[in-house]
Amino acid sequence: MNSSALDVITFGETMVCFAAHETGPLEQAANFTKIVAGAESNVAVGLARLGLKVAWLSRLGDDSFGRYIRASLEAEGVDCRSVTVDTAQRTGFMLKSRAPEGADPLVEYHRRGSAASMLSLADFDEARFLAARHLHVTGITPALSPNCAALVEHAMRFMRAAGRTVSFDPNLRPRLWPSREAMAEHLNRLAGLADWVLPGLAEGQALTGLQAPEDIADFYLSRGAKAVAVKLGAEGSMWRSAEGGGRVPGVPVEVRGRYGGRRRRLRRRADQRPAGRPGLAGRAGACQLGRRPGHPGRGRHGRPAASRPASCRAVAAGLDSQRSAASICCATFWPASSL
After folding, report:
1. Which residues pair with 84 in a beta bridge?
2. CA distances from 25 to 29, 291, 310 (A)
């Protein structure tokens, strides 16, 4: 991959996830599947599958978990040359229970003091970031540590000043913040540095105190965003920009799993996938980014956990210079046309 011609760069923590096979408490589970779990790296995988040149920056421990993560992402076509191997800190991991139908799984994190939490301004490579047309960040990374928060804000400001576009997915993790008030203040400030803001309805309500998706969109537009897409679960989504707004209805899907305490990834039924996109995940909820039908086999090192297909669609559409801000958001939620 030519480092001087990246489409997207993203960064953050990726962990190894052990997903239980048996339903019930984690302490009773005997069998687990090992997968890769990371919001930003999942977006990187989705965008790489869409044919974009994507780089992921992080820190991984000098351990088997770190080597597994890197091999998995590189097998998916993600450029990992900006990943630092930290010989002093370990790679984080998590355990996820198998919940009864319709219930949320228990997710147990083991990430405190992880290698990725040591990300800092020292990891910012100006030339590497300038090689990309777009930066994608989430609200998880700034919650990991003060040095991570400084890196996120610096990267967003730098890319905007350099004329690049920036997308921001709040991706709330309240347990990582000292308070909900601190979380809202910090993430709303970061959202003001982004071109495209992509909150879920519950996330937007928690961050703004507003209830209607239109009001949430207006909140972020008034703070500098060019386009906002609010995800509405089974009801689909709504988008708004200076050019106008609208809604995209939800699509019937088969639930494959629940991640992070809410439905995130569903796999679109084959008869409803847009032509030319045989294996991309639908976005009424969530889907596991494993080896898709017809995929040539890049998942041989393991299946990355739930991706961010909404973010993938938004970023990919936005990087098409023929698209308006409104269609960027619309494309996030599977419009009739494909990218």
Report:
1. 59
2. 7, 28, 31
Closest by CA to 119, choosing from 77, 91, 147, is 147
What is the mean pLDDT of the segment spanning 187-197? 97
Is the Cβ–Cβ distance between 142 and 152 less than 8 Å? yes
Token reading at 87: 């010989």
Q: How far apart are CA 35 and CA 23, in angstroms?
A: 18
Owner of token pair 């339903």? 23
Q: Which residue has the higher pLDDT, 317 or 272?
A: 317
Check: CATH 3.40.50.1370 for 3-332? Answer: no
Instruction: Provide the Cα torsion 214, 217, 222, 225; round to 10°.
Output: -150
Cα–Cα distance for residue pair 152/165, rounded to 1 Å: 14
Q: Quote the CA–CA distance of 275 and 257 in Å, as a whole number.
A: 25
**Ramachandran class of 127: left when φ > 0, alpha when ψ lies in -120 to 50, beta otherwise:** alpha
The two tokens of residue 64 are: 């088997």
Tokens of 162: 């350099």
Q: What's the whole-model pTM score?
A: 0.80
Structural domain spans, the chain: 3-332
CA-CA-CA-CA torsion sign (21, 24, 30, 32):
positive
Q: Is the Cα dihedral 86, 302, 32, 56 positive or negative?
A: positive
Confidence band (pLDDT; 50, 70, 90) for 310? low
Q: How far apart are CA 333 and CA 310, in angstroms?
A: 6
For residue range 110-119, list pLDDT tens digits in order.
Answer: 999 999 999 9
The span from the CA of 235 to the CA of 233, in Å, is 5
- The vertex-129 CA angle with 123 and 133, nearest 5°, equals 155
As a residue count, the chain comes to: 339
